[in-house]
Amino acid sequence: MNKVVKEVSKSLSIAEFKLSRTEKEKRTVSVLLEETIDELQRKSLVLEQANINLIQAINTVKATQEQLIHKEKLASLGELMAGIAHEIQNPLNFVNNFSEVSAELVTEIEEELQKPDRDVELETELLTDLRKNLYKINHHGGRASAIVRGMLDHSRTSTSERRLINLNALTDEYLRLAYHGLRAKDKNVNCELVTSFDTHLGEIELMPQEIGRVLLNLFNNAFYAVQEKQKTAPVDYQPTVTVSTQLLSQAVEIRVKDNGMGIPATIKDKIFQPFFTTKPTGEGTGLGLSLSYDIITKGHGGTMEVRTESGLFTEFIITLPTSPLPA
Questions:
Q1: Which of 45, 83, 193, 278 has the maximum number of C-beta atoms within 10 A of its C-beta?
Q2: What is the dihedral of CA 140, 141, 143, 147, to 10 degrees?
Q3: Helix (H, G, I), strand (E, B) or coil at 252
Q4: 126 with 109: CB under 8 angstroms?
């Protein structure tokens, strides 16, 4: 009997020990769990704050990008305005000159009418000259009006609105505007412009304001490249920018080539990346080619490539589909 009691007592002691140990383990686990929860909560707060900081950083980057894009557009607009001012000034100069000459002709006619022995042949000649001058005034005034109408049309057109456009005329117009904008800043600039426009091209559907921005950027880059090369080139170097269009089977091709500095092979693959620029600090945002690439590829479903050889030439090749993109 005593032996049984001892065995039962021993079993109870073991059970109590195990129970006590289990309770201690539970308390230990509970403490560890609480500590883990606290640590997770602390890390969660840290991650939450890091996420807030990241969102703020992203918003700051986006705002900076928007400011740089706006700056790039304003820079292009400044170049465009300088070219437009020159284009308008030319016909206005003709209008002013022919107006002055016409006023002198009118005075001569009035004097001839006052003479007792009028020279009819002279009067007829003066009237003929006056009529020619008036035709010329009308012609050049119409040219100035056309430039203004074209620019107003471009400014009012939504960037997402497609229209049938004479691409040859648009390309030629922006080439002249870019060159005159360059000359407005430096009268000593001299660059040969070579154009070859496919007469079978006709009109194609595109966003004229956006394509104009691309062309203006490519022309300005080409002029910059030949100017930079001219600083160190031999005296017989002739800066040349060549622009051509060609109608393909299902697309139209635009080529802009310069015989400037070219692009080193090590950076050729980076030129369409946002904020990458080969120009010195302060002379470029690095967004011109990036925006142009997006306009051509995403906005028009086309392609934009570059051929270049360092020290010799750079040629940008744009292809635009002749059929409208699916809605």
A1: 83
A2: 140
A3: strand
A4: yes
Q: How far apart are CA 239 and CA 259, in angstroms?
A: 7
Domain harbouring 268, CATH code: 3.30.565.10
Q: Are 254 and 236 in contact (CB under 8 A)?
A: no
Per-residue pLDDT band for 281 (boundaries 50, 70, 90) equals very low
Write down which residue in 134, 156, 178 finishes a domain. 156
Q: Which helix (H) or strand (E) holds 80?
A: helix 2-114
Secondary structure letter of residue 324 according to DSSP: P
- As a whole number of angstroms, the distance between CA 24 and CA 13 comes to 16
Domain assignment present for 298: yes
Report the C-alpha gap between 20 and 311 in whole angstroms. 87
Residue 153 has which token pair? Answer: 């049309």
- Angle at CA 211, nearest 5°, toward 80 and 257? 80
Same domain, 326 and 196: yes
Which has the closest alpha carbon to 81: 159, 24, 169, 151?
Answer: 151
Q: How far is residue 313's CA from residue 258's CA, in Å, rounded to a whole number?
A: 6
120-156 helix and 208-230 helix, angle to the nearest 10 degrees? 100
Spatial separation of the C-alpha atoms in residues 64 and 47, rounded to whole Å: 25
Q: Indicate the pTM of the whole model.
A: 0.59
Q: What pLDDT shows up at residue 43?
A: 78
- Residue 220: which of 70, 101, 114, 78 has the closest Cα? 78
Whether residue 184 is contained in a domain is answered as no
DSSP reduced 3-state for 254: strand
Show the domain range for 236: 191-327
On whether the CB atoms of residues 234 and 184 are closer than 8 A, the answer is no
Query: Residue 15: which pLDDT band, with cuts at 50, 70 and 90?
Result: low
Spatial separation of the C-alpha atoms in residues 264 and 273, rounded to whole Å: 15
Q: Is 207 helix (H, G, I), strand (E, B) or coil?
A: coil
Residue 316 confidence (pLDDT) above 50? yes
Radius of gyration of the chain, Cα coordinates, nearest whole angstrom: 38
Per the structure block, which two tokens stand in for 173?
A: 């117009």
Which of the listed residues 109, 131, 156 is the one where a domain comes to its end? 156
